[in-house]
Structure formats: structure tokens, C-alpha cells
Design brief:
By secondary structure, the protein is an all-alpha fold. Among the domains are: about 40-145, Serine Threonine Protein Phosphatase 5, Tetratricopeptide repeat; about 230-325, Leucine-rich Repeat Variant, CATH 1.25.10; about 335-410, Leucine-rich Repeat Variant. It contains 24 helices and no strands. It has helices at about 1-15, 20, 40-55, 60-70, 80-90, 95-110, 115-130, 135-145, 150-165, 165-180, 185-195, 200-210, 215-225, 230-245, 245-260, 265-275, 280-290, 295-305, 310-325, 330-340, 345-355, 360-370, 375-390, 390-410. The longest helix has 20 residues, at about 390-410. The protein is globular, with a radius of gyration of 26 Å.
Length: about 400
Amino acid sequence: MKKIRILIGLAVCLSLALAAAATTGPRPVPRPTRAAEEQTPDAKQYQAAYLLVLEEKWEEAAKALDAFIQANPKSAWVVDARYWKCYILDKNGDEPEKAFKAYQEFVKLYPSSDWADEARANMIQVGRQLVEMGKREYEAVIKSMENSGDDEVTMAALYALRESGGEGALQTMIELYDQSKSSRLRSRIAGILGDFESPKAFQKLAEIVVKDPSPEVRRRALEGIAEKKTPEAVRILKDIVEKEPSLEARRMALEALGEMDDPALIPFLKQTALTASNEEMARAAVSALSGGDGAAWTDALLQIFKAAGNPEIKQAALETLVEKNEKDAVKTLAPLLKDEKDAEIRKTIVSLLGDLKSDEAVPILLETAKKDPEIEVRTAAVSALGDIGTPKAREALMEILKKKIKDGEDR
């Protein structure tokens, strides 16, 4: 510990100017919560809501989290859900005061939770925005929360060590991480370790991803690995997906691979989606394929849809296809609807066509409403035409109604 203090002191002397930079940092991004290897009903419901957070579907995520909290008030996942409720208010950005108060209440209720440091940091950031908007009453609150003194010096030292580089600086950084009980400090170290071009730094980041108790620290370590986009980074992330016991770590690694936007990863992500024994992993692999641009990514999702045995994965692939290619979604969905044998999947396709609210889908839905062998699919097609709601869709509905009346008279 004495060695670390000495090195930190030297680093501060080298770069006191970095102290200001150390007090700020990138705002946190969504990241997975504690591992949920146990597939209890409440864990499954929570993970489904959390996936909506990852996909930045804020309104849907908020409703799903509310439903989870109401249904499972004593679940071990409630604290996590309440944190994400605060986060969604923050990310929407429409009511920063409401977001500030939500974080404030969270910190008050759960001061020792895994999310407390993150909530405080976010609260300070939102408070600064409010001050900049002229709401000076928040200034005193955030000043009382911001760390000062030795913590500021330590943060400045971390950045100075990063600038100095070298194996000695790296070793000091690793030792400081190993001895720190502060998740905030460990998170900063994890972020800085990603700046080192060293196998030793990569090895430490990989260890942090699977062992650190803080979700924020694990996320920062994964980001540090993924940002490199090197063969070594890909190897580490693939190893985590294939070998790590923690479901959470595997899912995070898949997400990081998807963010690399590397077509060479498509076969790996597609194979994971089709063969993963855990449904959450398969869905995460499908989600990872949503990030890339180009025909190869779309083709992979189509192949997953056609080959997947699990209806939930087929549906996830469909929804991702529509999100990626909304402009050409009708052309993509039409042949799938024609060839699909599963009535439930046809209903899903019909529903997605209705959600597009495009006249291009009207003749497809009209034919389905008339000719599909299953009444529930025909009914869904009629509802989808109602969802489109254009004059052309109303004409199609009238045609269906007239046919029904005529058929009745013929009988």
C-alpha cells in the first residue's frame, strides 16, 4: 500500500492539471445487472424488462419494470428494477428535475446497493444540467455530494499514471484496483486499463468482467476490451461467451461483440442464436446482430428466423429484421408470411405488418384475411388492417365485410 501511495504522489506531481479532468467522466450507459443464472419466474420477468432497457425502448421498458415491481415486491431484483426506472427518466431527458428527484430517492432508500454510486454520479450530472438551465437551487445539493480531498487526488493520479504509460504504471494501476473497496475508483481504473496496449491489461480486464461485484465496473471492463476491436479482444469476448459460467458475463460479451460491427463475427453470432441452450443468450445473440449494417447482417437474421426451432427466437429475429430495415420491411415479411407453416408465427408477421402502417402491406393483409386456413390468423389480419387505418386499408376492410355478407346470403 505504501508503494501505491508513493507512486500516486509522484503521479500527482507530474500532472496536477489532470485533477479537473478526473472529476468528470462519461455518463454511464445501460449495462447488465447481477447474474441471473437461476431461472425463477421473477428473474425471467426482470430480464425481459431489462432487455427492453438494453434496446432503449424506454416507454415499454418503464411499463415492464412497473409491472415487475408490482408483481414481485419482495424479489431480489426490485432494487435493480428501481434503478433502471430512474435511469429511464434520465435518458428520456424531458423532465430532468423528475430524474434528479428519482435518483435522490433511490440513494436515500438504497444507500448501500450495487447501484448507489452510479445513482449518485448520475444525479450529480443531472444536477449540473439543471444548474446550467438556471435552476441554481440544485448547486448546493450537488456540491455536497461531489467527492473531494483525497478522492480527487487519487483520480488525478490515475489519469497521470495513464499518461505516463509503461509496465510500472500498469502494475500500479492493477495493484490499486486489487486493494480498492470503492466501486467508483475501480470503475475508473477499469476504464483506464483499456487505454494500455498490453496483454497484461487485457488479461486483467477479462478477469474484472467475470469477478468484480459491481455491475458498473464489469461494464467498463467489457467496454475497454471491445473498444480495441483487435483479434485479441474478439478472442477474449468469444471465450467469455463460450466458457464463462456467468450468464450475465456471457450476455454482456455478446452485446460487446455486436457493437464491434464486424461482419466476420456474423457466423459466430448466428451460431450462438441457433444453438444456445439458454433462451436469453439466444435472444442476446439476435440482438447483437441488429447493430451491423449491410445485407450480410440481414441475411443472418433471415436464416435464424427460418432455422430456429424456438418460436421466441424466431419472433425476436423477425422484430429485429423490421427494426433494421423498416423501409423494406413489407418486402421482407411478405414471402415469410407466405411460406410460414406455424400459425402463431404468421400471426406475429401479420401484427408486424400492421405496425408498419404502410399501404404497401394492405393487399398482403387482405389476401391473408380472405385465404389463411386459420381463423385466428385471418382475424389478426383484419385487426392489422384496422391498425393501418388509411383509406386503402378501410377499403380492404369493406371488401372483407361485403364478402362475408355475400357468403352468408349464398348459404
